[in-house]
Design a protein that fits this description.
- It contains 1 helix and 7 strands, in the order αβββββββ.
- It is mainly beta and 118 residues long.
- The protein has a single domain, classed as Sandwich (Immunoglobulin-like), CATH 2.60.40.
- Strands 4-3-6-7 form a 4-stranded antiparallel sheet, with no helix packed on it. A 3-stranded antiparallel sheet has the order 1-2-5, with no helix packed on it.
- The longest helix has 11 residues.
Amino acid sequence: MRFTPLLLLLLAACAPIDEPTQSTALPPLNVTLVTNVAKRDRVQIVWSVQNAAGRQFEILRQNRLEPWKHFWTAVPVAGLIEIDDTGVVPGQSYRYRIKVLGSPRDQYLSEVEVEVPR
């Protein structure tokens, strides 16, 4: 019969597929504040970021009751994100936070409030 080779091809196509042995998901992020220093002319903040490989971050800044605004796009260097904000006004309060770029939903990490001295 000529159906035998065709039957063997159909059976081979139904063979089970090997399951991946490891997860392909990115590991969970761990962001912690290392330092924040406020001077009359600048704010310096350093965050430690673990498991950040392949990720980019947006730093957002808020002054008083204004909406959050883009401040900087960052890729951690040696596991750190460092900012040096020289556009501050003495006596003002600023808030900073990190947003994970490329996340299916907005994910904000490690919000910091800093009071600039007069």
